[in-house]
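Co-fold these.
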Amino acid sequence: MSQTWQNLLEHKHKLASTSIYSLFEQEPNRWRKFTVSAAGLFLDYSKNLIDSSGMRLLSQLAEEADLKTAIKAMFSGEAINNTEWRPVLHTALRDLNRKQDLIVGKENITRLVQNSLKKMEQSVNAVRLGKWRGATGKTISNIVNIGIGGSHLGPNMVVEALKPYASPEIKSYFVSNIDSSDLCETLKKCDPETTLFIISSKTFTTQETLCNANSARTWLREKLPKIAEKDIIRQHFIAVTARPERAEEFGIDTRNIFPFWDWVGGRFSLWSAIGISIAFAIGMDNFRALLFGAYCMDQHFLTAPFSENMPVILALVGIWHINFCHMHSLAVLPYDQYLSLFPAYLQQLDMESNGKSVTKDGKPLDYATAPVVWGSVGTNGQHAFHQLLMQGTEPLPVDFILPLQSQNPLGEHHNLLAANCFAQAQALMQGRSQKEIIPELKEQGFTEDEIKNLLPHKIIAGNHPSNMILMDKLTPERLGSLIALYEHKIFVQGVIWRINSFDQWGVELGKKLTNKIAPALLGKKTNLDALDQSTRELIKIYNQKKPT
Amino acid sequence: MSQTWQNLLEHKHKLASTSIYSLFEQEPNRWRKFTVSAAGLFLDYSKNLIDSSGMRLLSQLAEEADLKTAIKAMFSGEAINNTEWRPVLHTALRDLNRKQDLIVGKENITRLVQNSLKKMEQSVNAVRLGKWRGATGKTISNIVNIGIGGSHLGPNMVVEALKPYASPEIKSYFVSNIDSSDLCETLKKCDPETTLFIISSKTFTTQETLCNANSARTWLREKLPKIAEKDIIRQHFIAVTARPERAEEFGIDTRNIFPFWDWVGGRFSLWSAIGISIAFAIGMDNFRALLFGAYCMDQHFLTAPFSENMPVILALVGIWHINFCHMHSLAVLPYDQYLSLFPAYLQQLDMESNGKSVTKDGKPLDYATAPVVWGSVGTNGQHAFHQLLMQGTEPLPVDFILPLQSQNPLGEHHNLLAANCFAQAQALMQGRSQKEIIPELKEQGFTEDEIKNLLPHKIIAGNHPSNMILMDKLTPERLGSLIALYEHKIFVQGVIWRINSFDQWGVELGKKLTNKIAPALLGKKTNLDALDQSTRELIKIYNQKKPT
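Predicted complex below.
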């Protein structure tokens, strides 16, 4: 344990007897000190139980982890994903006006990115202008993205978030689950003659994606019996993959295969051709604006000193909550209906990146890493789980996200939305004491005895931390900044925790075991003796298709 | 701390050095002992780090909390919600063939429930048979439920889950958020002439619901300018509320106002007329089958000994994880696309019920209560957050839910879905040791040095607990059983924790503060001096509509 870590533990101990509320009194300038602007976003982190000297200590943690060097290493294409020997260059995907080439190995990344965007632009414009026709000559009006994980959550979240920018002529769908109900319910809404499928898979072997892609192909064949299969696939399928030869084997035309590279992680891939479903929906100009918003956050992240660096600050506050306050989950509460998928998106980004328990060098950790990320849009959550946020047995940190302007101004809706958002953050911090409750209960006519009984149930401890992230409006550019903010936050935490945020070896085992179990469920003779009793019996039950 | 609690702590200590895997060896009959069937559901809880003597100790906790009496008190209508002086009788809503009347105070609950169902049936059939006409004479094809919290999450989850049973002629929508984007995006899909709004609010004062109801009324007025407002409201609005006089004030016809009662909590209300949106979608027969499934679980819960009582067992295993293994979240992973909203539904049910920190008598607790409930459908989660489940720094409990038969049989999709589900549970339990990894890496051609470096990243500790819940098929009846299972699980935990699971005083403060902040955002002159610095400055920023 480093001296700084030790100092932070002591600092936590010192702050344990104080309240967030009183920190405002101790530091009259607190609000100005604990707010920061960057790339069109504004962060107020003043409502956390941390003071200026605590932030300085946390900042030291970052210095000691050599964060500055780590940031440069990522942006410059060093192989920071050290268990897969790869660079991590999602930032290069949005660095569109770069003057110098970025060369990694033998590849000119800058050129690859620009070419991919150009290729995307051709197809996107062809579809949106009605020049791309289905096999029977009709224009395309349904886009079905088949992909899972990073090939699903990012694009789906963005398409939902930017619905006000979408063309009404193009409907976007996302199929990810291997559960056939996902595909079947989607196909019910699609006309085969006007539907274009995007098959997104880095390896083009992802079980779910290939299974759904095959079933989609069969569906088209059955629905368009007079059309040659070759023509069906050419006009109704595109692929995004790092293994184009496999997409070609599936029958997809080379011109319809878009690149994906080793140096882009799945959960960071919405900026690449994996985001083509976004571009089909909102057009290339808006897609470029999304990239530009992320680029602005990248530049801020690269250049701002830690004390004014929004992703760094957000990361440090998170480290404070996780490692020193022992809070193991993070509630993300966007007060914007269009951001309904943002918590699910962040779940992958954070939990898959930092859900690790060994250092980059393989040493076991003795401190916690990624929290459970969860949440939902406000005000909905207020009527669901805020009871626990207010009166549960453990305080949990919260990130509020609020655009100041509505995409759909209507009466007082938006003012009330904002009032609710601010009030929840305030309530978490200040709580409600018996001093405030007793007079109110008296006024409501309760007797002394009733008040005595009711009082403890109405007290709210308060002193619960939260961040508030504001933007003027949820535009493509602002959304780009917001996503990049969290990407970099998570990166910073990974650096401080000394982990590799870019691999995901933990998901391998499930795939292996699936392959062992599957034959037994597919009616193939299998020796189940090596399996544990529970799995063996569950397989038997499954094969009877009756649970008892 | 009771002796049993103490014994359980010691028992945990004893089990700390063992593994779930080895418990199967110690108890050859383990699988048979640690599985239970009820009401068409099957629970395998053998993959938890708990043995038979541990389960007996946990069962003692339940005995000592006088669970048997508490269950009877709930079903018989005692005022177990002791801070609101109310009975808790959602179970009466599904006890349809009850011979004896259930009398609470002066009310005959049995009669009320039957009458409400009859009234529902009339309206539901009128709409579904095309007899109910909009103000311009057209049949109804869009149902928009306006409600939030319990008036949203339950009905929306069920309508989504039972889509295969829904009439294709009726489209169901749910509007809950005060964010105008929620309503506006929904109305874009609706034809005013064929749209029926359900306004669901116990008090008929819920800010979100009334704000949306008013905007919906304005929309209809603007879209149907030639129709008298009276006729618009009569033909296009129904209400579900405990305050019918307020719904009448809104203009809703008495015949279109459905009852809601004090003895049904919002988060337990989908079985009442709050579920009318479900009935519009799937018809009364299916709605009754849903109720019947819950009734079957009720009967099981009432009569089975604790050692064979599925809700009790699920509760005890949860208590074990929360209070003795100190796991503070619960991942709910339904392997069924139709259950996509089930985790969000359970969030409210669990976290609002048991997110409490004082006993029923108002004494502060020194143990944890409700966990953070989160999750998503499988297999999607595998490509998102399972990395953390497998290799995060803290083990988390998981509930898997799997219907054995698909609603949409298609190729091998369902077999693979099940294989994935079983494999994940197996992987969490058995993990992956260096003994298994090294030969594999050798085979893949890695050098000794590379293997040494890679190995620690590939190891999965295992020994992570999970439950597996199976059913034959996701029918209305089975879904009813599943929901009631969790309702009762949460009730049992509340009884053991000595808390009131049926109030939600923690959400009051946010409403109060919203009312204080709102005028300042609505442009009214307000004195902000009493507010904390952060809230005050955020209000200023909001009023400028620019974050910086």
